[in-house]
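Dear Dr. H.,

I hope your travels went smoothly. While you were away I took the liberty of generating a structure for the chain from your last submission, since the lab meeting agenda had it listed for discussion. I wanted you to have the full record in hand beforehand rather than looking at slides cold. The sequence, exactly as received, is reproduced here:
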Amino acid sequence: MSFDFDRKDKIKRFLKGILCVPKCVSCGERLPIDRLDDGENVLCDKCRAAWEKSKRTVCPKCGKNLSECVCITDALAESCCSVLMSLVPYNHESAMYRHVVQSVLFRIKDYNDSELSNFLAKELCFRVLGLAYEIGSENIFVTFAPRSAKAKASAGHDQSEILAKKLSKYLGAKFCHAIKRKNVFSGRTPQKMLSESERLANAQRSYAPTREIDKIKGRCIILVDDIATTGATLAACTGILKSAGAGSVICLTVAKSVFEAEQDEVEIIDPKQLSETEGQK
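The corresponding predicted structure, in token form, is as follows:
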């Protein structure tokens, strides 16, 4: 596992920092251009401190910090998922923590920000590193829960795919595009407006295996997504992986709801709108 980049790449990124002054993805504060470590120039010191503190949110189920919690939802338990590991809570009670997390998720979802994806992939790597060493990177495949074709076309990228590819590189594991998204929601009620059972049923109809899925038989799979709430999406994907013969499935997300959630596919709020809303209160 290595996060080192060659001198040419560092020079390129340094010049980019001069031409395009980097700003904190949460508060917009200008950042120094001398932070050449990969993925470190995305949050100001204040927002980074809030990000780190949010990792210490206590899970109401197990009583552990989120950085140690592996609790799974009922839907994931039924799909035979091994563990669910996340970095930060999506629905934190603190407005400051919530703003930083939602700003990061909004940015990675709507913009192909290489610095931010490097940062998050590295964070995800550290989160799962203990298990990876225990299992052995040669026995691990990294895959992802794909977003819809419409959403991918609109944004120009799939954030979970990008994170999964970079994570596999950092872990020294193999990447596999094992699952594809089917277009089944056209003309239907949006996922977030459905009940939990309806969301799970829709999620199960929305995904299918790709030709590459035969590679994962008997292997440990790390399934990457950006957010987990009820776990319907991850459960549907886990079911496909297990049916294809996966040995175990580790679900890994950037954020998850630590309290009861009302929707599986969270509607990310533009951080600017969130700031305006908080200011009116």
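Two observations you may find useful: Residues 194 and 263 are 8 Å apart (CA to CA). The longest strand covers residues 220-228.

With kind regards,
E. W.
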